[in-house]
Each structure stands twice: as C-alpha cells, then as structure tokens.
Amino acid sequence: MTDASTESPRMTQPAATASRFRRQWAKLKRNKAALVGGVLILVFVLTALLAPVLYRGNPSAPNLMKSLEPPSLENPLGTDELGRSILGRIIYGARVSLLIAVGVIAVGIILGIPLGLISGYYGGKVDFIIQRITDAMLAFPGFLLALALVAVLGIGLKNTMISIGISMVPIYIRLVRGCVLSVREEIYVEAARAVGTRDAVILIRHILPNVMVPITVQTTLGMGTAILFAAGLGFLGIGVQPPTPEWGAMLGSARNYLFHAPHVATFPGIAIFLAVLSFNLFGDGLRDALDPRFKL
Amino acid sequence: MLNYLVKRLISTIPVLIGISLLLFFMLRMLPGDPAQVLAGQMATPQEIENIRHQLGLDRPIYEQYAIYLGHLARFDLGRSARTQNPVSQEIWARLPNTLLLAVVAMGLACLLGIPAGIISALRPYSWIDYAVTMTALFGISMPVFWLGLMLVVLFSIILKWLPAGGTGGWQYVILPSVTLASFVVAFIARMTRSTMLETLSQDYTTTARSKGLTEKVIVVKHAFRNALIPIITVVGLQFGMLLGGAVLTETVFAWPGIGRLIVDSILARDYPMIQGTILVFGLLYILVNLAVDFIYAFVDPRIRYD
Amino acid sequence: MNPPEAPLLAVRNLHTRFHTLDGVVNAVDGVDFEVYPGETLGLVGESGCGKSVTAFSILQLLRCPPAEIQGQVEFEGVDLLGLDKEAVRRIRGGGISMIFQEPMTSLNPVLKIGEQIAEGVRVHKKMTHRQSRRWAVEMLRMVRISSPGSRARQYPHKFSGGMRQRAMIAMALSCRPRLILADEPTTALDVTIQAQVMELMQELKKEFNTAIVLITHDLGVIAEMASRVVVMYAGKIVEEAPVREIFKDPRHPYTRGLLGSIPVIGRKAETGRRLQEIPGVVPSPMEAPPGCRFHPRCSEALALCSTQPPPVIRLTDNRCVRCWLEAGDNEKKTSDFV
Lengths: 296, 306, 338
Hints:
The complex is a heterotrimer. By secondary structure, chain A is mainly alpha-helical.
C-alpha cells in the first residue's frame, strides 16, 4: 500500500527482552544456511579441542620413507613431503587456526571496543585523532595491513595473531563509534547523565549492551577473516612456521610438489574453505536474525 | 564540478600524511639502529654514517619527519638492502605487471559479478538468486591461493592447456587473473544484488513502468543507472582487496609483481623495500579512490552541478 | 443521468490481495466503478483505504509484496487483467497514464527531464530521437515551464516540487492518453502550487478531452475538479454520487464524517478539510471488523451493523450507498436469513 505509513522499528532498546531473544532464535533456526554454518563451526571447534583423541601420534614427526604418498587406508588423505599424515596435520591445524582466530578477535576487541567507545562518547579532539589514525589504517586493505605489521613485528604465530588483530582494530572502532553516536543522545543516556552517573558506568551499563549486536555479527565474520588471513600469511611463509601444522603453511610447501602430488595441496585448502565458510554462513544468518538493517 | 574534484583531492591529504606517519614510525619501531637497518647487514660503517646523515637521525624527531617527507615527495626511498638497486627503480619495473593483473581481474569480476547480481535481483528468492547468493558466499570463503593451486592442477597439470606460472603472452595472464577475480566477484555480485533490489523498488522505477517502457529499458536505463553509484564505490573498495589478493596470487603463479616483491622483502628483512612497496600500495589505493570520486561526478548529475 | 456513451474504463469486482509474511491482506475488496470519456471521477478516502492500490491494480504496477489481482478491468472494452504482459505494456503510458504522489522521488534523478518525457513518446508514437526530443520540449511548454528548451536538458534536482509535478503531467499527457490516473497529484505540494497544478490539469483535460481518475483525500480538490465521486473505506466503495449531490446530501455516515460535519442544507462544505474529525483510524485490512467495516467508528451504527455486512442500496439512477441506514425494512429482514 503506497500511502500507508510504516512504522520503523526503533534502533535502540535498553536491553534485549526475553521474547525478542526467542523470536531471533527462532528466525536463526529457520535459516538453513546459518544452521549448516553453526554445525560446521561446532565440528571445527570439536576437532580443535579433541585433536589428540582424533589423531594419535605426532603430526610433526617426519617419516621420510612414506613421503608424498597418495591417500590410502593408513593415511586417508595421503602424506606430505616429509611423510607426515595430512589428515593428522589438518586435525592439529584446526587447533592452530582456532587459537589464531580467538587471539585475533581478542586483540581486536580489547583495543577496538574501548577506543571506539571513547571516540564516540567523548568526541572532540580525542575522537578526531582516533578517527584520523583509523582512516589511515583503513586506507590499506586488511590483508596488506596485516602484512605490513608482520613486516615490522616479524614472523611467527604470536606475531601473526597480533598483526591480524591490529588490522581489525579500525573495523571495531568504526562499528562501536557509529553505534555510540546513535545511542548517545537517546533519552535514557541523557537521563542517566542527568542523575550524575559516572561516565564509565554509562558506557558499560547503557551503551555497551546496544553495540553488542553488531559486535557479535562482526566477531563471527571476523573469525572467518582471521582464519583466511592467517592461512594467507602461512602460505607466503611469513606466518606460522614449520613444523607447526598450519593449513596455509601446508599449502605453501605443497605448492612445490604440485606436479607429483596434487592431493597434498587439495585437502588443507578444503579445510580452510570449510572453516571460513562456516563462520560466514553463521555470521550472515546471525545478522539477518539480529538486525536486518545492519547489512553490507 | 571543479570545486568538487578539488575538494576530493584535498581530502586525500590527511590520509597521505597518516600513511607517511605510519611508515615513519614503522621504521623507528624496528629494534636496533634505523641507519643500520636501512643500510642492510653488509654495510660498511661509512655507509651507515652516510645514511645516518642522509636521514638526519641526529636531529630532532620532527625535523627527521620533515626530511623524510622530502625524500618521499621525490620518491627517494633509498636502496634495496638485498639488491642494492634503488627501491623506486625496482618498484617501477614490477608495477606494470601487478596493474595488468589487477585491471584484467577487475574487468573479469565486473563482467561476471554485475550481471549475476542483476539477474539475482530480478528474481529475488528464486533458485537462481539462491544459487548466485550461495556461489558468492563460497567465493568470499575461498582462499584465493588454494583456488589458484587447484586451477594450476586442473588446467596446467591435468589438461595442459595453460602455463602454471611465469610471464609471457596472454595465456600467462589467464589463470592469475581468474584467481584474483574470484576473490572480488562475490562482493560485486552481492552489492549489485542489494542495490538493484533497492532501485527496482524506487518510485522512479514505477514511473518508468507506468510509461510502458520495456522491461529491459526499465532495468538497464532506470534501475541500473541509479545502482551504478554504489556499485562503483564497491568496485573501488574492492580494488584495494584485489591488491591484497595480488600478493597471494603472484606467489602462486610466480608472477613478477610488487606483491611478490613485498613478500620477498619481508623474508629478506629488506626494510627500504618493504617501506617502498607498502607506500606504493597505499598510493595506489588512494588513487583508485580518487578515480572513483571522479567517476561519480560523471555518473551522478547531482554532483556534476553542485 | 449517466452520460450515454459506453464507459471508457469499467472496473468490476476488483480484488487485490497481498501475500505478506504476516498473512494475506485484502487491500481492495470487491470494487466496481466506471469512468466515462472525458469525465473526472474523484476517488476519495483516508490513507490506507485502498484507493492507491486500486489505481496501481488497474495498470498492474504492484510488484512487491507479491499482489494477486482478480476481477475485471475493462478499458475500451478489453479486460486488461486478461492481457499478456506485452499488451499491458502498450496500454501503460499510451492509453492510460499515471501521475504519482511524490514528485521528488518519482522522477529518475540520473536522466534528463526531456529524455524522461521523450522515451515514453518513442515507445508509443514511433518517433525518432530527434522528433521525440522536440516533442518533449513542446510538452514542457504546454505545462507552462518557462524556457522549456533548456529545462528539458536539466536533471530533476534542478526542478522545484511544483515544476517536477508539471513535468510529470507533461510526461503523462505526452502520448495523448484517454485516461489519466492521478494518485494524490497535489498532496506533496504547497497550497499555492496545488491550485496552479490543479488549474493546469483542468485546462489540459478540457483541451484533450482526457478522462481523469483523481485520487485524493482532499475534498476541496474534489469539489473543484470532479464530476462524480466514489468514496472508499477499508477496501470497499461505500458511496457513489455526482459531486454536487455528495456535498449537498451525503448519505453514508463515513461520507458525512469526511465532509466534516452533519450537513446543513444550503451550506457549502468547507474546502480543504481533512479527516481527523472521525474518531479512530481505518482498520488494518488484516483485522477488518465483521459486519459493516465502518461500524466501530460510526456514531449512527445499529445493532445489525456489527454483524451483517450492509448491502448496496441504489438510491437513484446515479447514486448508491453501502449502508444499513438507507436500507428498507425488507432488506433488513431478509438479511437475517442470509
């Protein structure tokens, strides 16, 4: 109906009510793609946690007698150039990828959320400076930014985590700042301020709950990106170093044996793809269920 | 219009300053003596002293930054610690290769992604829309370097149709650019779909339909012309992603571009070269964004006359 | 009293349903009316009563959410709902054209005004680019846009609201249609501009003998422009009458509410009155009350009104009303058995 006015849903509410949560949960469950994503995430996390149970043996111990064997009963996905089980390395690689993803998000959140809150809530000079730095960082595409940081910090697992984590900080700053700006002038914040509540209390009690929805979505999607970036750095040889089983690094060395043993390059790639896909599927579903307006 | 272009040009200055600051402090953050680092492991004390003097490391930090800016403005990025050639010279030699790859890939991605997005938007929630949306999500989740390897296995090793890497004729460009395109085509298709869904439901589209225009004219001339503005924005943003993807793709296909150069430099701790390549990536990205702003001025008449 | 010719447009038992996530919405629920060549029919009602949807249904312009249109829409003897897409397309802009409510959003921001007029002409009148462009300039001149030649080369953002609506009128008239559906053509405009646009439409209508379906909630506009009036409420027509009679003697309580007061004989209805004088709002089409849909807001409702849908009572040759108050005792009795 062209002349019927549609009431737009309010952007912010003090807290998610139980009924709203139930409705969102129902919507998420209806979304088959999100469901598949959720199941895949579960498989990924369980593989990472139960790696020693799923694969008995040392995934990094070379066995040169069995180098570059095609898939067999003993080694279902074959062996790599050092004769190590590719299945075993993929299983243990899930641990590394999950660890990196969690670390990356931790860095991003620990730095990004407070900076975004401060930038949005206080405005003024602080906001200006933080925003200019964010601008400069965002001028580089995420992967290049992580690459540049690796160049400064050096290679290795810890630096991979920190570099990718820092490359995500500007995204969190933007996200949180945007939300804070829209929430800040809401009546209940005004009211809280009028009563003389401390800034920190206002930020944590009133503003943070409102930015939780976009942060949750961003974090889910960010986990996928983190795994993808880490694998990319590993592939280039400037991420996690051998003999640690990391999917990207596995592909990097497999590249040299592509002609004789293409299977070595096939399976780790599928693992990366499925892990990233799972977070993207779930993240998209989450976004649709939680906040349909928050769309790319 | 001139006003607008000048304004856009001026707005890149803070970003440029930000990037230069970032690079400046990047080198200062390195452990040890920056002069030693810039000169490389093999440098003689005299060379180090020269660089120290050249960089003015004995002067106050703001003066150092000013001198550094002066060097940047002249594209004097020093010499590579690895090859001893001037950094700018090495970058100039490889830049065309990367640009060729990026432009071909972006062309492919637009050629594929925009029609896919339009078809998807014309039949929302149909099987074809679902297929496009799912393919796009798969594309976003796919590690480019793995896709590159799989393409090599299929087209170079099994079918023997195309070379596995290196440079030469056009056949060397195909696999790298397809690989690179796969990365951004998904974003372009997604964005085209959502923008077209919006413009197709706008009042002016209904007006166009009420005039008795054919569906093709309505979609292309009315809805798509309006969707073009956000699509161009995304193409510009994705160009940056493309440069990031180029680092990986160039490694897969042993393509002699600046993406490969940056990785080699990191592995060799060749800091002048790292700094130079990062600066070039930043500049490229800014240039693309500027180009996007200029294209806006031609696509959107509201900008043209303001 | 109807004009003796055959109707130009005859809408018969039109139903338009939307299938939404929340259920089925009956936006138009069995609407019948005719439009005769050259006349102006006023279609009146509050926002959300289904009058816009009726107009959009005639040209099948409803896209989203998916609409289901049933009934007959006979234009010059041909049922538009039975035609294929290509034939409907030829009617749009050619035989029937439309003027929309929002001049700010109804014109394409990235196309020149002249081109937006010319492209329709090229489709329907088989003109070359050059001819159509000249035609567009002539159309702009006709709707009194000064220096139409240079204006035609401008983009909509250079036009004021009133000028845009003139351009819309030029567009609608450019192929000399027999019928124009004008959906609240002046609602979004300033009062002074409203009058000018109305005057322009009136003149052009006389010049080309175009029939108009004028959709509005502004009774002042109706009094000036329309010869007959159809009043809609919640997807149904509740009263139909010549314009003079509806102002002099409204028979449906809703029409009386629209006119703003209990009519006093000899007193001219005030123009420009809006509808806030009726308490409450139009019910959502999904929760239409049983019986007469107006009864919860009706000050004269009978007990019967809340249970039985009222019949259409033909008062004279050209007047009818859907109300129990006008029904004879016989009808009331028989309704008990229905």
